[in-house]
Amino acid sequence: MLIASFLDYLRFERNYSSNTIQAYKKDLSQFEEFVQGEAGDEYFPHKVDSDIVRNWIVYLLDTKNSPVTVNRKLSSLKSFFKFLIRQQEIAVSPMKLIRAPKVKRPLPTFVREEDMVSLLDGDNFEDGFVGIRNRLMLETLYDTGVRRSELIGIKNSDVDFERSLLKVTGKRNKQRLIPFAERLSDLLRTYIECRDREVGLLSDWLFVKENGGQLPVSVVYNVVKKALSSNPTLAKRSPHVLRHSFATSMLNHGAELNATKELLGHSSLASTSVYTHTTFEELKKVYHAHPRAFKKEVIMEMRIQSIHFDASEQLGAFVQKKVSKLEQYYDGILLTEVIMKVIKPEVTLNKNVLVKVKVKNGELLAEKTANSFEEAVDECVDALSKQLVKHKEKAKAK
Fold this sequence. Notes:
Layout: H1 2-13, H2 18-39, H3 50-62, H4 67-86, H5 113-120, H6 129-144, H7 148-152, E1 159-160, E2 165-169, E3 175-179, H8 182-198, H9 217-228, H10 239-252, H11 257-264, H12 280-287, E4 300-304, H13 313-324, E5 333-342, E6 351-359, E7 362-370, H14 373-397
Parallel strand pairs: 4-5
Antiparallel strand pairs: 1-2, 2-3, 5-6, 6-7
Helix pairs in contact: 1-2, 2-4, 6-8, 6-10, 10-11, 13-14
């Protein structure tokens, strides 16, 4: 009865997941069986002392349980006896004098930044819905540091494009906001458009299978494992490796440890609701330490030839945003040049734009004239997107 009450406490008051509760139940049942076998009598928690617990530790180690496993089981026992003290079932915990076995903690595995850039920017993803989805999953894991369970739990309503915020639900249903940059925003929009067109909006989940159902964690694991298999230096190739890679990158570029923990969901400040104590600008300042998140997609040199006009900052930002989206169609863009000029001030169609895109095996270009620079840029980007798709298909065929 006491174990059942403890499990109810974990489920309803601590809001633990069903998997965690099952793990506690298994550990406590094993300990109960051990005590009954040793004493040959009924199990009474108030009769358990430190010697019984030490004997259990010896038994576990003798039966080839690793120190990590033993420590987890001892943690279950410790929580259980703390609960019994609060319930006034016992006065002192038998765990008070227990020392857990020492565990050698290896350094966390992570992928170097240059290797991640090479992986994410390479031609490693197939065309169509599955390829776009798998690339976005990898990008999201690396750019935000979310867990794979958090990734598949993201709903369409959790993506706030207006404020560039992603809401994720972590362990014990704790929620947090993670800012994302324009790079990930563009990839999200491309994926959603492809998903709704090829699969249809059949559920509330952001990441779905080809039949529209929620994506299982096994698919995420297999996609990451396959993507990281090209790196022979990695000891592990799981989604958690990308989480470590995100944290390592953040810290290497000047982010504070506590701020990084907050983004990862380790902060004790996290609550059952979305953060209210941290503003988006503060989070974004921390997140800016991750170079992948705010990296320019297109190495763009803008040359402006002008007659009787000076390009405004607003126009420059518009051109940068529009042209940078070309990488959605081809990852191997090396340089983009944009040349804008006024042909004849007295005529209507006098705004001329020339966009050159340099790739590994040549150069593509588009030139358009319109009533406004914005319109001409849009037409150039549209023409170049089609050229880049053809270029990519030819490159794959070789």
